[in-house]
Structure prediction request, 248 residues.
Amino acid sequence: MSREAQITQTFVELADTFIKDFDVVDFLHQLTVRCRQVLAITDAAVLLAYPGERLHSPAPCDPSPALQQVLATALAQGPALDAYHTSTAQAPTRQADARTRWPDFTTHARDAGYRYTCAVPMRLREDTLGSLLLLRTAARPLPAADLALAQAFADAATIGLLHAHTLHHHESVNERLHTALHSRIVIEQAKGILAARRNISLNHAFNAIRRHARTHQMLLTTVARNVIDHGLAPPAGRTDPATDTRPQ
Prediction:
């Protein structure tokens, strides 16, 4: 698939929120997957706030211990937090130039091998739901065109989330995001159980859960609870190349 086709497909996916049982967790995870596929970056993460000023990372993933520490620090310091507070994109910054601005974040990012970091807000007019953090190990900064495309993806995702709220007007955006954050705990537990049972990676376990949920039109959380409470084991299958972007 060409890059242009991937970009088009991404915008279609981000607009497809007018569906019954819209799954916020799966939606945000797919946003990070598409960013890694389309943009010249190594890793991406969605950080959301509900309500107030604190950021959280709701989308399940299979990060390395080093990346986990970067994300934990990014909730309190770094370009993602600044993008959220200012509602403006934070241009690619070399770690060497960011030490005085974000000392803890910069240290962990450097230790994880990232040379450049940047972030764009997830915003629509006066509504800013969070930010999209972009991490790059290459020696050159993210091209300006890719940063602009990342902002377009983040804007489209925000519109999709707010449209989903309009469709399900009885539940506020904050409540839906709060549910997504709690759903992550259940999904992470199910990933661990399935990974241990099958002796597979956490990422492959998550892909199995996600594939089963999509095939049977179920929420990720529902499948995860079935794994935890009833020992359900989603059938092993071929890894979906659209969802598995981790190095083999």
